[in-house]
Design a protein that fits this description.
Number of helices: 4
Number of domains: 2
Shape: rod-shaped
Number of strands: 2
Helix content: 40-55%
Radius of gyration: 19 Å
Structural class: mainly alpha
Strand content: 5-15%
Strand order of the largest sheet: 1-2
Order of helices and strands: HHHHEE
Bound molecules: zinc ion
Largest sheet: 2 strands, antiparallel
Length: 95
């Protein structure tokens, strides 16, 4: 295999790892780096790695898919009228 081909494959693994990592709330650049350096193993790491819940929660709130219950602080759907965690009524918001 030519060195350009290897580089291309590593770039592709890097991109796959970056996408997998992003969906778990990981930073894009380090995820890409893991895939680029480790190839298929790096992609596997991003697939089996844990989710960064704090980042995922913030992303859900920023993209207005979720809101935080004022009563218990858990994330609930934007259109919810009652919190599924504590049962408190919440004001329904339309996007
Ligand atoms: Zn609640």
């Amino acid at each position: 295999m030519k060195s350009e081909d290897i580089l291309l494959h590593l770039l592709i693994f890097g991109l796959i790892a970056a996408v997998c990592g992003q969906s778990k709330g990981w930073k894009t650049a380090p995820s890409f780096f893991v895939g680029f350096v480790l190839g298929p193993v790096g992609v596997l790491i991003t697939l089996i790695g844990g989710r960064n819940e704090a980042v995922l929660e913030r992303m859900a709130i920023e993209s207005r898919q979720r809101k935080r219950c004022r009563s218990c602080g858990e994330l609930i759907r934007m259109e919810a009228v009652k919190c599924r965690h504590c049962g408190e009524p919440v004001a329904a918001e339309t996007a």
